[in-house]
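Saturday, quiet lab. Running sequence design on the C-alpha cells for the scaffold JK sent over.
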C-alpha cells in the first residue's frame, strides 16, 4: 500500500472568515453598530488605528470573493453573520437588507457548489445589547436564541451546518479578563460570568435548533495543548490550570454538564457557583465540535501571572509566526486525540488553522511567495491525517483564512490569508499557499 496520504472520501475542504474582519460597511443599509465598531473607533485599541470600516470590503465584493473560492476549488466556506447587521438593536426588528446580504451569499455559494458553514456569533455583539449588560446579563441567552431562530427560519432550508459561537474562551479572556478585545473589560469577576452566559446562550440556541432545524449544529472552540515546561509539580500544576482554563472550561460543561475542578483554583474567590438547571441548558446534544488550532504552550508556573498563574516558555529551536505562536503540528494531533478520548470521539471539523507570516509584496506576474505558510499547512494537514488513521472522527478542514483581514487588535498588520488583499486597492491575489491548497483539495490530500 503506497504511503501516499488519502483523506476520507467525503472529507470537506474549506476556508474560514468572520464578519467584522472582512465585510466593512458596518453601518450600511440599516445595520446597527457592534461592540467592535465602538472598540475599533476608541483610539488605542487597534494597532495603527485600523478599523473594520472597510476591511476587505466583502459586503460589496461578495460575488467576486465567491468566484475566488471557486477558483481555489473550495468545497465549503465558513463565515459568520453580523448579529447587528441582521437585527440592528440585537432584538426585535430584522433589517431586510442586512439579512438579505446573507441570503444572497448563501445562494451564490450554493450556485458554485460550495457548502455554507455558518457561525451565528463571532465576537461582534450588537452594541445595544452590550449597553444592557451584554454577556454579563443572563437574559442574553434568550436574546441570542431569538436571533438564532430568525436565522434558522430564514436559512436552514439551504444552510446545513451551523455553529452557535466562535471561541467563547477568547470572548471571556480577551473581552472581560484582559481587556485586549471588545468590550475591553478588565475584571476577573466578570470573565467567568461572561463565559457561563456564553455557554447558556449556546445551549438556548441549540434547543431552538432542535425545534426548527433540519441539519447539523455545533460549537467552535479554540484549543491549545499545555505541556509542562519541567517535571516539577509547580509546572505540572500550572499546565493543568492552563489546560482547564483554555480547553476544559467550555467542553466539559457542554459534554459533562460541569466545569473542570481546576477552575476554582484558577479564579479563587471570583469563581461563582451556578444552579443545576444552567448545566441542563448548556449540555444540549451537539452534532459536531469545531476545533480551531494554532499553536501549543509549553507552560511553567508563574505566581504573578494572575489568575491562571501560568506562562508560556519560548522554545529556542522552534519557528514562530508573526503573532508569536510556535509552529507545532504535533500539538494538533495531541489535541484531537485528547478530544476524542475525553468526549467520546465526537464528529470534529477543524474550523480554523493557519498562520500569519511576513508575506513579500505581490511580485510581477502576480505571485505572492509564502513558503512558510505552505510548510505550516503541510505539517498540520499531515498531523490531522495521522489521527484520522487512528480513528479520530475528523470530517473536514477550514483554513484560516480565505483572505488577509482585520486581525482584531493587531489591525491589518498580521496576514493570515491564503489570498493576499491589497487594502488600498482591494485587489485580491492568490498566494502560493492558495495554489498549494487547491492541489490538496483536488487530490484529497494525496499531494501532501
Ligand atoms: O488569530 C487568528 C484567528 N483566530 N481565531 C479567531 C479569528 O477571528 C482570528 O482571526
Ligand atoms: Ca435568495
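Result came back. Writing it out in full:
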Amino acid at each position: 500500500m503506497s504511503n501516499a496520504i488519502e483523506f476520507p472520501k467525503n472529507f470537506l475542504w474549506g476556508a474560514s472568515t468572520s464578519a467584522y474582519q472582512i465585510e466593512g460597511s458596518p453601518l450600511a443599509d440599516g445595520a446597527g453598530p457592534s461592540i467592535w465598531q465602538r472598540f475599533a473607533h476608541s483610539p488605542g485599541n487597534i494597532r495603527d488605528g485600523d478599523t473594520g470600516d472597510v476591511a476587505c470590503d466583502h459586503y460589496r465584493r461578495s460575488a467576486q470573493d465567491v468566484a475566488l473560492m471557486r477558483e481555489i476549488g473550495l468545497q465549503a466556506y465558513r463565515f459568520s453573520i453580523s448579529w447587528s447587521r441582521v437585527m440592528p438593536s440585537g432584538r426585535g426588528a430584522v433589517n431586510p437588507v442586512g439579512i438579505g446580504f446573507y441570503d444572497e451569499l448563501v445562494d451564490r455559494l450554493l450556485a458554485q457548489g460550495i457548502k455554507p458553514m455558518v457561525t451565528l456569533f463571532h465576537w461582534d455583539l450588537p452594541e445595544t445589547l452590550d449597553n444592557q449588560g451584554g454577556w454579563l446579563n443572563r437574559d442574553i441567552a434568550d436574546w441570542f436564541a431569538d436571533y438564532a431562530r430568525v436565522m434558522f427560519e430564514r436559512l436552514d432550508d439551504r444552510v446545513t451546518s451551523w455553529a452557535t459561537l466562535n471561541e467563547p474562551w477568547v470572548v471571556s479572556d480577551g473581552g472581560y479578563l484582559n481587556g485586549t478585545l471588545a468590550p475591553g473589560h478588565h475584571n476577573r469577576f466578570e470573565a467567568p460570568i461572561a463565559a457561563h452566559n456564553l455557554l447558556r446562550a449556546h445551549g438556548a440556541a441549540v434547543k431552538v435548533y432542535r425545534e426548527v432545524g433540519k441539519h447539523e449544529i455545533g460549537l467552535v472552540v479554540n484549543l491549545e495543548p499545555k505541556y509542562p515546561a519541567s517535571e516539577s509539580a509547580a509546572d505540572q500544576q500550572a499546565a493543568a490550570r492552563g489546560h482547564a482554563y483554555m480547553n476544559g472550561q467550555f467542553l466539559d460543561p457542554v459534554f459533562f454538564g460541569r466545569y473542570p475542578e481546576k477552575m476554582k483554583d484558577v479564579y479563587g474567590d471570583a469563581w461563582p457557583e451556578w444552579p443545576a438547571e444552567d448545566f441542563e441548558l448548556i449540555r444540549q446534544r451537539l452534532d459536531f465540535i469545531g476545533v480551531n488550532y494554532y499553536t501549543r504552550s509549553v507552560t511553567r508556573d508563574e505566581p504573578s501571572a494572575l489568575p491562571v498563574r501560568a506562562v508560556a516558555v519560548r522554545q529556542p529551536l522552534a519557528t514562530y509566526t508573526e503573532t508569536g505562536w510556535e509552529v507545532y503540528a504535533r500539538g494538533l494531533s495531541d489535541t484531537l486525540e485528547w478530544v476524542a478520548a475525553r468526549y467520546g470521539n465526537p464528529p470534529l471539523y477543524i474550523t480554523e488553522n493557519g498562520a500569519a507570516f511576513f508575506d513579500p509584496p505581490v511580485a510581477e506576474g502576480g505571485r505572492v511567495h509564502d513558503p512558510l505558510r505552505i510548510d505550516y499547512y503541510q505539517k498540520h494537514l499531515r498531523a490531522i491525517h495521522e489521527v484520522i488513521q487512528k480513528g479520530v472522527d475528523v470530517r473536514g478542514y477550514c483554513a484560516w483564512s480565505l483572505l488577509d483581514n482585520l486581525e482584531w487588535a493587531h489591525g491589518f498588520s498580521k496576514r493570515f490569508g491564503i489570498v493576499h488583499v491589497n487594502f488600498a486597492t482591494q485587489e485580491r491575489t492568490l498566494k502560493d499557499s492558495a495554489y498549494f491548497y487547491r492541489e490538496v483539495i483536488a487530490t484529497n490530500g494525496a499531494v501532501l
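Notes for JK: The pocket of azafagomine (ligand 1) is lined by residues 18, 21, 167, 222, 292, 352, 400, 407, 416 (CB under 6 Å). The two ends are 16 Å apart (CA to CA). Ask whether to fix the surface positions before the next round.
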